[in-house]
Design brief:
By secondary structure, the protein is of the alpha+beta class. It folds into two domains: 3-207, no CATH class; 218-278, Alpha-Beta Plaits. It is 37% helix and 16% strand. The protein has helices at residues 3-8, 29-40, 42-56, 61-78, 86-95, 105-109, 133-142, 160-172, 200-207, 232-236, 261-264; strands at 81-83, 98-102, 118-122, 156-158, 176-181, 187-193, 218-222, 242-245, 248-251, 271-275.
């Protein structure tokens, strides 16, 4: 199990523990301030971080590794993520009270539009976005063109059913689901993204080798008797953990993050997820 499962989940999946979603941001000024700063200066934070990682390319590998490890330790205390399969996403939505669909800041940063693929999830009941005092106050602090009032037209309050339909659509696009902390262990968001969509976290994690997310609690396995070797799952995997070998797909278990997106494109139902701890190669790989 990952570090957070030990520290914040009592040995179980930490993101299925209701207390990790408790959200009283009116009185929790630390988390409130972190969320506001994160959203208000997202582009600045990312730009500075990328410049730092680019500079690290020019230092000796041992020093670069130490710098990455220090950054990972710092991020685990503030803003860290983990992929979750769709069935666990559904269980998360059973815990949360309010689901708000918001524009994606990563896509905006990379000039790929700001389509609403991200979800703010909280146990705080929200009946109406336009009149909810916390949402209005947060939007007023974050949105640059506040004017006479925040423009919440790009924000949408969703039901669980609507959200699950959205997650199905995301999987059809090859977008994995992941949950993120805003001052650990408070979980505040579920993102749906991949490298090609402009995900900053995946770029840092995969392209720079600086860990900003745990691997998932599962790992993919292939039923060789069902697999036809079509290659669809190989092309879909966000982590390049699948390869075609001898006319069949093969999982490089050590590279698999257990997101389950490969399953959505398999027409033969040849892929399933198993507990990472049950596979010797991945039992201690997070």
């Amino acid at each position: 199990m990952c570090q957070f499962c030990v520290e914040h989940g009592d040995g179980k999946k930490w993101y299925l523990e209701a207390e990790n979603y408790a959200c009283d941001l009116e009185s929790d000024l630390r988390r409130r301030g972190f969320i506001i700063d994160f959203a208000r200066d997202f582009d600045g934070h990312v730009a500075r971080g990328i410049r730092y990682l680019e500079a690290l390319k020019h230092v000796p590998a041992p020093l670069r590794r130490l710098a990455h490890e220090a950054a990972t330790r710092r991020l685990r205390r503030s803003h860290f993520g983990q992929p979750v399969p769709k069935e666990d996403a559904a269980r998360i939505l059973d815990i949360t009270t309010s689901i708000v669909r918001v524009p994606c800041v990563c896509r905006r940063f990379h000039g790929k539009g700001d389509h609403a693929y991200c979800l703010l999830i909280t146990t705080r009941p929200i009946a109406d976005l336009s009149t909810d005092p916390f949402v209005v106050d947060l939007a007023a602090r974050i949105l640059p063109d506040y004017g006479a009032g925040p423009d919440l037209s790009d924000f949408e309050l969703l039901t669980k059913g609507q959200t699950m339909t959205m997650l199905d659509d995301c999987e059809a696009e090859g977008l994995l689901h992941s949950i993120w902390t805003f001052v650990t262990p408070f979980i505040g968001a579920m993102c749906n993204c991949n490298l090609s969509s402009g995900c900053v976290a995946m770029r840092i994690n995969q392209s720079y080798g600086c860990r900003v997310m745990f691997k998932g609690e599962n790992v993919a396995t292939i039923d060789a008797a069902r697999c036809t070797g079509c290659g669809s799952c190989v092309a879909r995997c966000p982590f390049e953990a699948l390869a075609g070998e001898d006319g069949r797909a093969n999982v490089r278990s050590g590279e698999c993050y257990g997101c389950g997106i490969c399953r959505a494109v398999c027409g033969e139902d040849a892929i399933r997820l198993v507990d990472r701890r049950l596979v010797p190669e991945t039992a201690h790989s997070w």
